[in-house]
Amino acid sequence: MARKNFDEILKEFLDESSEGLQQLDTLLVKLEHERDAARIADIFRVIHSIKGTSGLLGLNNLEMLAHAGEDLLTEIRDGNLSPSKEITTALLQMVDSIRAAMELVAQKKSDAGFNAGGLIARLESLKGGQADRPDVSRKAPADQAGPEAEQDLSAAPAPSGVGAQHLRVDVSLLDKLMNMVGELVLVRNQILQLGHSNSAITSSSQKLHQITTELQEGMMKTRMQPVSNLWDRVPRLVRDVCISCNKQVRVEFEGGETELDKTILESIKDPLTHLIRNAIDHGIESPEIRRAKGKPEEGTIILRAYHDGGQVCIEVSDDGQGIDAARIVAGAIEKGSITAERAARLSEREQKGLIFLPGVSTSSDVTKVSGRGVGMDVVKTNTERIGGTVDILTASNGGACFRMTIPLTLAIIPALVVVSRGIRYAIPQVNILELVRLNADQAAIGIEQARGCSVYRLRGRLIPILYLHEVLRLKEGDGRQEQPSEGVNLVILQAGMHSFGLAVDDINDTEEIVVKPLARQLKGLTVCSGATIMGDGAVAMIIDVIGLARRAGVEVQNEAQSRTAAAAEHDVAIERLVIFRVGKNRRLAMPLNLVARLEEFPKHKLENSAGQLVVQYRGGVMPVIALAGVLNLESDGEGSELAQVIVYEKEGKSVGLIVDEIVDIVEERLTVHEADFHKNIRGRAVIQGRVTDLLEIPHISELWTATAQTVRGVN
Fold first, then answer.
1. CATH no. for residue 527?
2. Do residues 272 and 402 share a domain?
C-alpha cells in the first residue's frame, strides 16, 4: 500500500472512530439503566468497526483491546450478561483507552508502546472466561498489506450519518474562509459608504451587499453546531462524579438543537463541566438526606439551551438544597475578599454572586471533586472571555440555577458605532438595552449626583452614568473632531446583573463589524475586547462592556434590577415592551427583544414593488407593513411627512412596521387577558394605567402578504 494512501486511510479511520467513540459514553451510560437491543447494536457496531479496521491497518494492540470489548458486548447482546455497574465501568475505561491509543496513532502512525494488557484481562474476566484472541503473528505489517486489503479499506461503507449528503472539511479551512468573508465584509462596508455619495454605483453596491450577506450567513452556518454535541459527554461526566460522591443523579436535556459557533462551543466545555460537578457535589443532597426531606433519592439536573435576543442562554439547574447566601458571604469574608460592612449592604442576589470570587466555596470539605474554591471563578472568567455572562437564579423547585448567556459567534457581529472626543468606538449590540438623547437643559436637570457617582433616573429606576472620555482618559483634540455635540447621548448597557448608561459625544449607526483580535502589546486593555476596521479604513476599538463596568466600579444594583431579581426569585415574568400608537387612541405593545431599531423615514422614500410596500434600508430593500391597514384602523399620521417605523428581525430578515407614534419603552409584570377579536393580537394588558393590546408577530410572509393591498395613511 502506498504510504500516501495509507496516511489518508489512517486519517479517515481516526476521524470516523472519534465520531463513534463520542457516542459511546452516552450509549453505555444509558445501557446501564435500561437494556435496549438497538442501543447494544449501536455500541457493538462502533467497537466492531474499530476492531476490524485497526487489524487491517496493523494496529494490533488496539485490535486486541477492541476484540476483548467486542467479546464482552457479545455476551451482553446474547443475554448471557447484564450491563451491571462493574461491566459498564470497564467498558467506559475501554473507551478511554481506545481514545488514548488513537492519540498515539495520530502522532506516531503506530500503536507501538500502547499496552492495555491489564484492561484486556479485566474485560475477559468479566466475560467469564478467556476470550479467543486474534492470531496477530501472521498478520502483515500495514505497509505490506496486499491489494485485497487496500481494496477492502477503500470500499468500506461510510459510518452512519456520513454519505453523499455530508463532507468532512478541516476546521482550519473553515477558519480561513471565514477570515476571507470578514475581509469581504470590510470591502462591502467601504463600497456602501461610497454608494451614499455616488448614485452611479448605488445599485451595484446594494447587489454586493446582498451577495456578501448571503455568503456570510452561509459561512456562519458551516461553523454552527448543535449544543447536543457538547451534551453527549454529560451522562458520562455525571456518572463518574456520582460514583465519587456516592450520590444518585439523573440528567435531562432541553433545546439540544440550539446551535452555536464551534469555537464558542469548545470554549464553554470547561465552564459547563464545573457547573455540573458543583451541582452534584454541592447542590444535590445525599440519598439519605433527600429521603429525610421527602424527596426522591435520585436528584435531577436539567440542562436547557435556548435563543434570547441574538444570544444563546444555557441553564444548569438542579433540585437540590439551593444556594445559601449567608454561607457564601461568610466564606468571602473569611478569605478577605469582602468586608463584613460591605457585605451587609449587598442584596441577596449580589451575596450569591460572591461565589464567583476566587477561593470562595460553599463546601466545608475538600474533596477530589470540589471544595477548593477554584471552580466558579473559572466559570465566570472563561464565560466573560468570549463576551458572555453568568447569572445565578433560583430554580422553581427550590434548587439552584446558573445561566450562561453567550454570543452566537465571535467573528462578525452587529455593533453600534459611537464617538467620544472625535474617536470612534464600536459597542456590541447584544449589550445595548436602549438609547437616550438629552439636550443640554434635560441633562442639567436629569443627571444627578449620588454617592459620588453620576446617575440618571430612567422611568423610575436609578442608573449610574459613565462618561466614556473620562473612563478612557481622553482629552480634547485626541481625535479628529474638536468639539463634542451639545447635550448628552446615553447608551444604556447591560453588564451581567448590572445596567448603566454610557455617555458619548455622538452616535453614528449600527453596522456589522469584523472582530479582529488585539495585538500582544494591547492584551492588557481590559476595556476593549478587540478592534475593527471601519468603512473608511480607520480602526475602531470594540468596547468590552463588562470590562468597562468593572474598571469604572459599577456595582450599584438599581431599583429595576432588584425588581427583576425579585420576580425571578418568585418565577414571575417581567417583560420589556415597546409601546406605540396606531390610529387615534389605539395603544399597542410588542416585546423589545424583537425590535432591532426605531426609525423615521420620509414618506416619499417609501416605494411600491410588485404591489408591496418597501424602503431602501442600510444597503438593501426592506419590506414595510402599515399596521393601520393590517388592523383595519384609520391612520392618524396622514398629515406628517415622516413615517414612524419599528424595525424587527425574524428568521434573519428585517421588516418595518409603520405606526403613528412610538410612545415609550417599559418594563412591566404583565397580566395578559385573552382577546380573540384579531388574529394579530395575542391579548390585552393594563400598562401605565391604560389598556394596551399586545401585538402577535406572525410569520413574515403571512404578514407581508396581508398588507400587499393599498396601504392607508402612508402616501
1. 2.40.50.180
2. yes
